[in-house]
Structure formats: structure tokens, C-alpha cells
Design goal:
It is built from 14 helices and no strands. The protein is an all-alpha fold and 313 residues long. Helix 3 crosses helix 11.
């Protein structure tokens, strides 16, 4: 059998990331529709229970006990830290999503390539030159436009999505450096274990969080603070469907990050900024303002600049 062509090899990692981001964009567009029927903790527990059950059944059916054993981490400590970064990022992102909308949440989350470049320098002493600094400034300007700073009061929940971008960047860096030997399906499996644990933690901490937030917490924290609600057919099936799409996307993304240089592959994370509003328009008729579109372009340009400067070092 001949070796894969250079073109096919070079397209494999970006293709995995673009496909994964399209799946994430579709599933994420349904999350705000669930926010009135259940809270963040319940959502994570339901989708985790469904997806882990399905995943174990499929893995066992296709490969038996040998395949199931591959879910055991090669480097437990490295994978545990990677899972922590990923779960923290996604819990923050989902907490903000119903409140600020998918465009603003995506803008905060997908500042991650800029953070990949900056944090690689901070954590691993890679040079942080003027291009990376310029990229960070351009990205900041893009976030300001998308979040409508100066046009509307800045809502703290919007900054949670930006924090999610920082943790997602750590997830990308950690995957490349410490999870190369892990099975992509195993990485996705442990992600969902982490989501389930985090969902249970949010539910158990709910009474304390609601007391701390007080009666004036407002709609921005409603999804995070909502207790377990009676199960209804449509919301439950939607949560399960979101989970199935997400587990597939996680496998594609993990494989993409494993297979290429993160400072190059991270560029294709920006495809989410196209997919998310496109599917929001197709599904719900939602549109973006000119300044929000410009802000997304600036965020993409900032990430591309940071990634390009990293590739030239």
C-alpha cells in the first residue's frame, strides 16, 4: 500500500478540526433553546449519561474488551489535566451561551488561538514577538465590537466566554504536548466523564450558589443556577442529540490537534465563527449586526497573525 500523498497528509488535521467545529456549531445552536427547560448541570448530566452509554456500547461492539481497554489513559496525569482544561472551558462557555447568544459566546471562546500563541510563550518560553502582541490587541478590539462595549452595558457573563477561550487554549496546548499517545476516542470519553462530574457538582452546589447570588441574580445566571427540572420529552431528546453530536465532534477535534502543530491547526478553529452564525440563521433566522461581523473578522485576523508569527519562529 502506498503512503498517503503529501496533500492528503497536510489536509488531514485541518479537515478533522473543520468537521468537528461544524458539528459543534450545529449542536450549540440548540443549547439556548434548552435553557428554559433545564439548567446547565442537568443538561451536562443527561447528555453525558446518554453519550457514555452509547460510546461504551459502540466501542465494545466494534472491538470487544480490547477496544474498551484502550479507553484507559496511557498517561493518566496528562490526560486528567487536559480533561480539566477542556471541561472548565466548555462549562464556562455553556454557562454564557444562553445569556449572550452564540455569536458573542463564540467570539469569547474562539479568542483561543491568540491565547495559544501567548500562553505557549509564557509557559514554554517560546518568543513572544511584536506580531503576537499586535494579534492580541487586534483580537481585543474584535471582542469589544462583538460584545458591543460602549454601545450596551458590559455584562460580566460575557467575560466568562472570554475566560473559556483561555482554558480552551490550554486544552489545545496540553493535547499536543502530553496526549500524543492517547486514543482520540479515549480523549473524548474522558471529556464526557468530566462533563458529567462537573454537571453533578453544579447541581449539588446549586443551593449554595443560589443563596450566594441572591434573589436579584437575574436572567444571565438562570441557566447556571437552575435546579433539576422534571424531564420532558423534547428537551431530553435534544440534550441527548447535542451530546451525540458533541462526542463525535470531540473525536474529530482531538484527532486533529494530535495530528498537527497546534499553532497551525488552531487556525481552523476559526471555522466555528462561520458555522455558528450560519446555522443560527438557517435554524432560527438570527442575524448579526455589521459591527459584530467586523469584530469576528478582527478576531479571526488576530488569531491568524498570532499563529503565523508562531509558525515563523
Amino acid at each position: 500500500m502506498s503512503d498517503p500523498s503529501p496533500l492528503r497528509t497536510s489536509l488531514y488535521a485541518p479537515g478533522c478540526v473543520v468537521a468537528g467545529m461544524a458539528m459543534v456549531a450545529i449542536s450549540d445552536n440548540f443549547v439556548p433553546r434548552l435553557a428554559d427547560a433545564m439548567g446547565l448541570g442537568q443538561f451536562q448530566v443527561l447528555r453525558t449519561a446518554a453519550t457514555l452509554t452509547l460510546m461504551l456500547a459502540v466501542v465494545a461492539a466494534l472491538g470487544g474488551a480490547a477496544r474498551v481497554r484502550r479507553l484507559v489513559p496511557v498517561r493518566p496525569g496528562g490526560l486528567a489535566m487536559r480533561t480539566f482544561f477542556n471541561v472548565a472551558a466548555l462549562m464556562m462557555y455553556f454557562a454564557a451561551l444562553p445569556a449572550v447568544g452564540i455569536a458573542a459566546a463564540a467570539a469569547g471562546m474562539f479568542t483561543s488561538p491568540v491565547w495559544v500563541a501567548l500562553l505557549s510563550g509564557l509557559m514554554f518560553r517560546e518568543p513572544v514577538g511584536p506580531r503576537r502582541i499586535l494579534g492580541a490587541l487586534i483580537g481585543f478590539a474584535g471582542v469589544v465590537l462583538v460584545l458591543k462595549v460602549g454601545q450596551e452595558p458590559l455584562r460580566p457573563i460575557a467575560l466568562v466566554a472570554v475566560a473559556a477561550g483561555i482554558f480552551y487554549a490550554l486544552n489545545v496546548i496540553w493535547t499536543r504536548r502530553y496526549c500524543q499517545q492517547e486514543w482520540a476516542v479515549g480523549i473524548a470519553f474522558w471529556n464526557f466523564v468530566g462533563y458529567g462530574v462537573a454537571g453533578m457538582a453544579v447541581l449539588l452546589a446549586g443551593p449554595f450558589l443560589r443563596e450566594a447570588a441572591g434573589p436579584d441574580a437575574g436572567d444571565d445566571l438562570a441557566f447556571l443556577l437552575r435546579s433539576w427540572q422534571p424531564l420532558e420529552l423534547w428537551p431530553t431528546l435534544t440534550a441527548v442529540g447535542v451530546g451525540i453530536a458533541a462526542i463525535t465532534a470531540s473525536s474529530f477535534l482531538a484527532e486533529g490537534y494530535k495530528s498537527g502543530d497546534p499553532t497551525r491547526v488552531a487556525l481552523f478553529d476559526f471555522s466555528f465563527l462561520l458555522w455558528a452564525p450560519l446555522f443560527a440563521w438557517m435554524l432560527w433566522g438570527e442575524t448579526l449586526g455589521v459591527l459584530q461581523v467586523l469584530g469576528m473578522v478582527l478576531i479571526a485576523a488576530a488569531g491568524a497573525l498570532a499563529i503565523w508569527s508562531g509558525a515563523r519562529k
